[in-house]
Amino acid sequence: MVQFPAGLTTQQGSISEQIEDRVRTIEGVEKVTLLHRSETPAPTADPAAGAPGVEGSAVGAKDIPGVQNVIAVASGKGGVGKSTVAVNLALALAARGLKTGLLDADVYGPSTPKMLGTEDQKPRATEKDTILPIEVHGIKTMSIGYLLEDDSPVIWRGPMVTGLLRQFLFQVEWGQLDYLILDLPPGTGDAQLTLVQSIVLTGGVIVTTPQDVALLDVQRGIQMFQRTSVPILGVIENMSGFECASCGQITEIFRGGGGEAAAKRYQVPFLGKIPLEPSIALSGDGGTPMMKTHPDGALGSVMTSACDQIVEQVSAQ
Of 16, 19, 248, 288, which sits 20 to 30 A from 72 (CA to CA)? Predict the structure, then answer.
């Protein structure tokens, strides 16, 4: 086998064929594989484009008709309880009498339908080729989880994901909302950039856990929002200690304080600590969030306080 680095563009397909034909005539050659190498020159830097590494600022971003404020809930990695925070934050806003929506933007791992107890519901299309969101617990919600059959995995490339998110943003009948909460997928990638490039975000909330490594996760989240010109509304620390039901003693399951320390280090608001409680996981698995069953409990109190702080910050913008 002869591997021939062609360095050709797709428009030069005929030349590629000629090269293959000629190389095959060489004695001893049984197979030809052309390795196409891109020789596209690097783009010239635009002085008005901002600092290097800035991916998609708010320039050209649109407002969602009828939606006053859009809050993105993010995390530097998975498994920190980001969706739990997003769902309960939406319910805390609704409890204040604010018209609230929740968009599950985690296309590869949609969890809000299960957490809201709406797995069996299906959104309906309108004559205008728009989608009616699912309404539950006083909020409007949309997720790809409503469109999948059973537990089918989503095996999509980036363009398909970004196309779906744009549809959810602009082709769902959100109506008049005071707040739309976006449950982002963990980390940074196509989904986050699509949202930032497509809509004007009011602010971002970062969810993390107490370990020291949380500093790195929070740093990634903060840099993502800063580089896309999104105001950071604060950090929420989840799984922050376990309180014994018998004696009330708090045990730090993880090394504590990472989220709070990260917020202090990067000079962003610290919105509160959510304890590690089995009831929180059970409520999510059971489809009835804690803000509905125990609004005055440990999680409910933290989310109510965080909600108040977020609303205050947004009002001051």
Answer: 288
pLDDT value of residue 27? 72
Q: Which helix (H) or strand (E) holds 236?
A: strand 232-237
Whether 59 has a pLDDT exceeding 70, the answer reads: no
Q: Are 195 and 72 in contact (CB under 8 A)?
A: yes
What contacts 157, CB < 8 A, 6 or more positions away?
none
Which token pair is 5? 């680095």
Q: 100 φ, ψ to 5°? A: -130, 145
pTM of the full structure:
0.78
Task: For residue 257, give every residue at least 6 positions away whose Cβ sits within 8 Å of its Cβ, in sequence order, or none.
Answer: 210, 237
Report d(CA 80, CA 293) in Å as an integer. Answer: 22
pLDDT over 80 (residue 203): yes
Confidence of residue 41 (pLDDT cuts 50, 70, 90): very low
Question: Which residues, other chains included, contact 234 with Cβ-Cβ below 8 Å and sequence gap of 6+?
Answer: 205, 206, 263, 268, 269, 270, 271, 306, 309, 310, 313
Is there a contact between 142 and 172 (Cβ–Cβ < 8 Å)?
Answer: yes
To which residue do tokens 């045990």 refer? 251
Handedness of CA 223, 225, 228, 230 (dihedral sign): negative
Q: Where are the chain's structural domains? A: 2-35, 67-316
> By C-alpha distance, which of 312, 50, 92 is closest to 203?
312
In sequence order, the 6+-apart residues with CB closer than 8 A to the CB of 240 are: 209, 210, 256, 259, 273, 274, 275, 276
What is the token pair recorded at 231?
A: 């105001």
CA distance 277 to 78: 18
